[in-house]
Amino acid sequence: MNITLIGTGNMGSAFAQQLSQFGHQVRITGRDLDKAHALAAQHQNVEAFAADQALG
After folding, report:
1. Cross-strand partners of 5
2. How many CB atoms lie under 10 A from the CB of residue 15?
3. pTM of the entire structure?
4. Interatomic CA distance for residues 44 and 4, integer angstroms
5. Concatenated DSSP letters of 4-53
6. Which distant-in-sequence residues (6+ apart) come within 8 Å of 22 by Cβ?
7. What phi, psi does 46 have (nearest 5°)?
8. 16 with 39: CB under 8 angstroms?
9. Residues 9-45: pLDDT tens digits?
10. How far is it, in rounded angstroms, from Cα 35 to Cα 56?
11. Which residues, 6 or more positions from 10, have their beta carbon under 8 angstroms from its beta carbon?
């Protein structure tokens, strides 16, 4: 399943971790794109995108 998460805080991080562990493809975005990239680098199947590209 392809999932887009908006937010890189505690909830977004936890969702990204859990969803990626179950094999879902996760796109994540937030106000701080650098934080989104750092979060994506920690998990398989997670990619960071700018807000205007995350839903594409």
Report:
1. 28
2. 16
3. 0.87
4. 15
5. EEE--SHHHHHHHHHHHHTT-EEEEE-S-HHHHHHHHHTSTTEEE--TTT
6. none
7. -120, 130
8. yes
9. 999 999 999 999 999 999 999 999 999 999 999 999 9
10. 20
11. none
